[in-house]
Amino acid sequence: MKIGVLTSGGDCPGLNAVIRGIVRKGIRSHEDTFVGIRDGWRGLLEDDVFDMSMLDVRGLSGRGGTILGTSRTHPYEGGGPERMREVMSAHGIDAIVAIGGEGTLAGAARLVHEEGLNIIGVPKTIDNDLSGTDYTFGFDSAHAIATESIDRLRTTAESHHRCMVIEVMGRNVGWIALHAGMAGGAHAILMPEFPVSFDQIEEWVTSARDRGRAPIVVVAEGFIPEGLDEQVADRGVDNKGRTRLGGIADFLAPKIEEITGIESRATILGHLQRGGSPTAYDRVLSTRLGMAAADLAHNGDWGKMASLKGTDIVSVDMASAVDRLKSVPLQRWEEAQVLFG
Fold first, then answer.
1. Collapsed DSSP state (helix, strand, coil) of residue 61
2. Domain spanning 139-275: which CATH class is it, in words?
3. For residue 159, with 0-12 CB atoms within 10 Å meaning exposed, 13-18 middle and 19 or more buried, which class applies?
4. How far apart are CA 27 and CA 33, in angstroms?
5. Catalytic residue (one of 127, 129, 140, 295)
6. Does pTM surpass 0.70?
7. Is 91 annotated as a binding residue?
8. What CATH number should be reported for the domain whose range is 2-137+278-321?
């Protein structure tokens, strides 16, 4: 069997480890052959592919980014499924392994169920918002980077007796904020799932100050502050019309300074959370998901996605994995609040 591999959507640590896991397992266990597809669906639509051997994936487990490149090209652009069939036929490609997040896998599921293409999914996103898996690879690395940043910002905040407002990624969910905030000892964590008033923020921040601490506020980029009807997005939209979130920390810091009298500074971590080498956890998870995807493709389990359930790698229906966002549950929010202030 000849299998094409693509990475689509936002990049994150662990993508290369998945590619390595797919190729090594497919070649060694099933004697399959592989082609790399450059820049996600664009490569499949524009016939930008290359043969990929074990030599091409050696040493990739600890390397960040993706050797295949990525893009947000929509699979129904540029000829859509018919063009994909042409390219797959020309190269003798029997199946595709699509590595991506919500948008990528939703598109892949549609291509399977409506167009009959042979596609397997692997869940990737630093946001950890896919409901079909306990964790996505990239998430552990992202919140580890955010935690280290909080640790560094705490020392300068303490030196100047300031409040630090630290913005992390996550789009419409607060998993990175929750985990990094708890790990970094934040005095307040603000997430899209749970509204928080300025009175409550003031109480948490001044409580920390009154105990002699430099208040640390971690806010997810999708948090909607009191008085606004929508997320802060002062960076416009990308070339696909997708809103570029970011700027909530810049909005909150002067508000917090105004209501508390504590000098406040904002730091937006941004794409730092996507870059660099994956953590050991993400390297292992990525590799295991990649090997499972190779098995699913070889067995013809089209429309399935490799998934983490507890500590086991299982397969789930790709369409069901993207039918809703995996938000932070109320129990986790209530659990964390005892640490605030």
1. coil
2. alpha beta
3. exposed
4. 6
5. 127
6. yes
7. no
8. 3.40.50.450
- Report the C-alpha gap between 123 and 120 in whole angstroms: 10
| 274 labeled binding residue | yes
User: How many angstroms separate the CA atoms of 23 and 26, rounded?
Assistant: 5
Answer for the pair 8, 100: CB distance below 8 angstroms, yes or no.
Answer: yes
pLDDT at residue 237, as a whole number? 66
Q: Is 271 annotated as a binding residue?
A: yes
The token pair that represents 263 in the structure block: 């000098």
Whether 209 has a binding-site annotation, put simply, is: no
Q: How far apart are CA 307 and CA 130, in angstroms?
A: 10
Take residue 124 and report the two structure tokens written for it.
């990737």
301 is catalytic: no
The answer to the question of whether 244 is labelled as a binding residue is no
Domain boundaries, the chain: 2-137+278-321, 139-275
List average pLDDT for each run of 10 residues in the chain, which is 341 residues long: 96 96 97 97 97 95 95 92 97 97 93 96 95 94 97 96 97 96 98 96 97 97 91 72 84 97 96 94 98 97 97 95 92 96 94
State the first-to-last Cα distance of the chain, in angstroms, to the nearest integer: 58
